[in-house]
Amino acid sequence: MDKKKVFIGVGAGVVVVVLLIIGAFLFFRRGGGGDAVSDSRTNTLSLAREYIQQGEYQRALDLLDRLLIDNSSDIDARSLRDEAILASRGARDAAEQRAREQEALNREALTSAVSAGAAASGGSNAAVQQPPQVRTPSAEEIAAQRRAEEERQRVQEENRIRQEEAAAARAAAEAERRAAAEAEAARVKAQEEELARKSREIQNQMRVVNDLISQGKTALERNDLSGASSSFGEALSRLPPGEARFEAQKYAEIADAYYDTYSTAPDSEAGQAAVKEAISHARTAIQKDPSQALPHYTLGKINRDLRQWDNAITELKEAVRLDPGNYLYSFDLGRVYFNSRKYADARQAFETTTHLKSDFAPAWYNLGGTLRVLGRQDEALAAYRRAVGITPDYAVAHREIGRILYAKGDTKGAIDSFGKALQYAPSDVASLREMGAALSASGDYAGAESYFGRALQAAPDDGQTNYNMAVVKLALEKPADALTYAKKAADSAPSNASFQYTLGLACEENGDIDGAISSYTRAVSLDKAYVRPRINLGRLYLENGFPDQALALLTEAYSAEPNSFEVNNNLGAAYASKEEWAKSVQHYEKALSVDSGNATVRVNLARAYVGAGNLNAARDAYLAVIKVAPNNWDAILELGKTYASLGDHTSAKKYLSDLLTRNPDYSRKAEAERILGGL
């Protein structure tokens, strides 16, 4: 009992000591007795509220986050935090709205200034960007437009490829038919030789089977599937026993005959029935004699037509393995490899075909296309030339030769090749477009206009051709026509920055400055790295008294193309308008380093030197101008003024007197006379 009391007493003493320690800690923490934790929270909430009222939303949120970390269920802190977030969003939205309104005001002011004929500021000469050369393809909204345009272009490209493939197939069809006939004749000859080695009874049975199969093929040519099936069935029922190889050959022959029917009308009911029979008979042939190449070839062609590339490759490789001397097998294998983007394998297959049959033009054509994809342009050119050497009227091969020559800079050779392509295929739209592009590159805009016109007759809504026609019309100084085609191009691909830029040029040429501003602005928004619309939009801002907006655009352009003549010339003018002479001098000098013979830029540089206080440099610049352009009256006047400022009155009198003597009707005659009178 005593021990127990002592134990309890010690425990109670420990509790008392602990409580005293905690009490003292809280006393000192609270500063001598108040509720310090509550005071700190109250002060923090009050400070956060002040920050919100002052627009310092992030600072308020930082304070409130600390309170919520200590106590996530603090209702006051949560409420104030939500208030800060909403206020922050509202401020951001308001700022964005103000920015949009300001941009609209800038555009409206610029349009009004241009329409009113406001003079260019600072006497500067801002260069107009030349039209692009003819080609030989909210942020969320822009992204969506880009995706839609990319999908449209993908479909368009697939259609183009299919058209070209179809054209190539038509060009090669006759050669392939001849090749197939040769292969058939060889197969018949081999069977006849084999038949001659058989007994007379077996020979008679085999001849009956062959005749029945011929009868079935004739029925297929008449689209009489029922009659064909009857003849083929009877033929198979009369196969001589013990002749497995002959039996497999007949199944393979029937399968290939059904495939021919399918290939002529693959989507028809008869075509679908025929392909099923082809597959069934080909597989039976393989089962009866695995060494037969023909049924694998038939299955390979079926899979190729169904775009089942892996299956097609498997079957065609087996056909090539079993009959390596048949050039049609390696040719079709090459085409399947190409369509499945296995270009190195395709090249090997086509080269095998050309070795087996060197006068087979389609193999050389397809080899050329494969080599182009592999980046071996010279070898591709040689292959295409082999194709037209064998088949001179091979139009698509001539077109491909033209494309390679155009890419190599041989415009004349390209025009000759496109001309040959059109000689043999006058309505080939691709060749018409390519000829137009080549003629435009050579400076023959009238010729380009003619060919683009013919291309548009066949495909009036093609965006690229309308764009190219617009560029040609601008070059021919036919602005109204250019505007028509530029609008069609822009409508066909709203997210194409080049099309928008060219529409801006056409609008400007037609005096529609508001339309030009809109199109240039859209081109800028579509392509952050596109310099040309920034130059032209900057020029419009600059010419109409908005140098700050011009500088923003031109500085972006300078970041992308620091050595551009147009960019530097415009920047020189923009800085001159703001009297930032050192920067103006810097950019005019860079512009002259690109085009040293440009007298107008040199005059502007001299004016910038004057503004910067470098009169000696200004004098030398004016002297350089009148050396190459002795009748540049403004330069002579400015030179006289510069000499006067330098204190060289003799030289000033010389040049000003010479100016008045040689050009007594000079528009600034009074100014020159006033300066002379003061010397």
UniProtKB/TrEMBL annotation:
Residues that span the membrane, as ranges: 7-28
First and last residues of every TPR repeat: 293-326, 361-394, 395-428, 429-462, 497-530, 531-564, 565-598, 599-632, 633-666
Disordered as annotated region, ranges: 116-175
UniProt feature, compositional bias: Low complexity: 116-128
UniProt KW Nucleus keyword: no
Comp. bias regions, Basic and acidic residues: 143-175
Xref: Pfam families: TPR_16, TPR_8
Family annotation (SMART domains): TPR
Keywords: Membrane, TPR repeat, Transmembrane, Transmembrane helix
Name assigned to this protein: Tetratricopeptide repeat protein
Organism, scientific name: Breznakiella homolactica
